[in-house]
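Journal club prep — side note

Before the paper discussion, L.F. wants everyone to see what a predicted structure for a comparable chain looks like in token form. Sequence:
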Amino acid sequence: MTQKETTKRAAKKPAPKKSAAKAKPKRKRASKKPSSSGWGRRIWSISWKCALIVIAAVFIYGIYLDQIIARKFEGQKWHLPAQVFSRSMALYPGAAVSHNQLIAELKLLGYRKVANPRQVGEFSASKTKVDLWRRPFLHPQGSQIEQRVMITFDSQGVSSVARNQDGRQLAVFHLEPVLLDRIITGDGEDRLFVPAQKIPKPIIDALILVEDRSFYEHHGVNPFAIARALMVNISAGRTVQGGSTLTQQLAKNFFLSSQRSLVRKIREALMALIIDFRYDKNEILEAYLNEVYMGQDKARGVHGMGLASQFYFGRPIAELTLPQQAFLVAVIKGPSYYNPWRYPERAQQRRDLVLRLLMEADQLNVAQYTAAVESPLGLRRADKPVHQKLPAFFAVVQHELARRFGDSLLKQSGIKVYTTLDPMAQEAAEKAVKKTMGRLSKNDKSLQVGMVVTDKYSAGIAAMVGDKVPGYKGFNRAVEIRRPIGSLIKPFVYATALSHGDKYNLATPIKDQPITLKNGQGKSWSPKNVDKQFRGEVPLLTAFKKSINVPTVNLGMTIGVGSVATTLDKAGWRDKIPEYPSMLLGAVNGSPLMVAQVFQTIADNGRYRKLSSITSVLDMDNNPLPASPITPVQALDPATNYLVQYAMTQVVDSGTASRLGKAFPRATLAGKTGTSNDSRDSWFAGFDERNVAAIWVGRDDNGKTKLYGSSGAMAVYQDFLGDRPPISLRRTPINGVVNGHFERTTGVAKQAGCENSIALPALESSYHPAKNCGDPLSWWQKLTGG
């Protein structure tokens, strides 16, 4: 057998069996159980991995929130509403402002009358003087500092304005304008931004005491306050205390909804931590003071302490008393619940609690606390609106803003619009409209009204009413109507004639005889006088002041209809003027605003300046926006215009507006009544030294009213002056006008003292009386002097 075969056999040979003694029984293998240390390692592994994931998620989410916060805080925190201001009352020697009118303006601005002014916002008054401590304010021409002045008056208005500190006379002194309204766009939030440094310290102290005592210590979230609030709420069985910090409240107000949920609270806390880490405490406090919800003004949410001060007390926050400051902090907890007009006792109790906390914190002594809690809330009158309802005027303002500055202007944040509105004139106009229309509407409830008042010196719109219900927002009759202006055109007919001084003067006889005119289609027109009588001839002044139709048509046809149209156009009439004979009696359609424009030209010594409602606009940084200046144009010769003014004073003295003159016998006023065919339209235009007014009374359906200019529109003006006493016209002599004397029947120039003569102003260039009471000088005598 070979070795190879031997090896194979050995491999195939079975192994020997073990003995029974040595054999071990077989057992099932048991499963291994992990030790407690193994479980701990596994839980730890899972936990730190989850923690890393959560930390990474929170970190990423924090970065996201940080970007949101940064955009808000470092960009534009709020869209501040456009503020619309009234005109700023200017006081200077000779200003047409009376003693009573200044006091009324100061009360409107919230100044307090005292025996002796001791701080900003106070004034005292005697019969001829007003001692005023003016507030600082932003004027279009620059910031105005607080200043104490003595203003002295005489019968003509302001006689002097002097600084109290050194007696220095001031050339001009401005009062702050009235904030008329803020134009809200979008979210309905209204606020008046006030920097933190201008918030009174007691408000900040009280706020921190009441809302967040550890504000300067915590980092946005106060765990101890949260725990304390939780325990109190559990003990009470309901939510009676919150643990949110001021920073958390700010985060909620700025970025989150008021919905209560754990997710929102977590997000609120994260945001508060980020805000506190990124920004200074004072910056956070300023944002809170201007963001916090303080109440509801109809559809507008009142936000921030600055606007709340005006909303509740009608004055700037810097002038609030200590109890009023405490109330602002008190009302934060629940503006509706502590509404002081609806729940005065509840509101006062909450205010007194804030005062007590201040006393306990040694911010007040016992005497101060006692005096404060015994004081009334001192609220503004509930019927005195925070913002004015001026639909007619605001419509004109918005149209002018769009025309001059573009449609997108009001979308910009923080712009300031300074208008020409005179709040006292507006108030007087509204009262006059309500009173007069209430009386006239007893006979005709469909009567309506449109009224425009301008400032004679600035050519600005001082007041506007577009409906017999002044606050009604709808059809603006002051601007939008087009009705025949009737006899209001006559001053321009007579101005055209008087400009020809060699042919016409105020005493020139004018034909009052029947006249029939035919047009190109063969239709005839025979104008009639109101009394249906003809006088043969009447002096020009008589024809004017009595508003006699036929002499006016005869005069107008002589001087030319086209010449009259040119005069009216120069005076500022910008609609088409129909050059027909009927135009001479007012067959020209216009609105109160258009009438005010041309009579403003007469009141302003013949200067045409386009009426405006805006003086200037400042952007968010208080820089003026560029605008084209309004350049005056001498439309009417000043001397001729002077004669027209004189004739208009005679209308009030002894003409169709004589009832107005009797109502104000001590004032020289100018006016003109107007009535269209069939008494469908009642018109009046007039002026004193300060204001020009144009008024229409009629029906929207163009129906008959049974009113004349003197019984309808002039009645509104008379009531207007009753509430706003007129300042007499200053009829100072001007170059080119002399005191002339004329024969009553012929209008021939005479020497003073001649029999049957009348004294009237005349153009110097054409006034050539005889040296005696005989015939006037011939051309040769004029040339040779004798």
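L.F.'s comment for the group: Confidence is low (pLDDT under 50) at residues 1-13, 15-24. Keep this in mind when we get to the figures.
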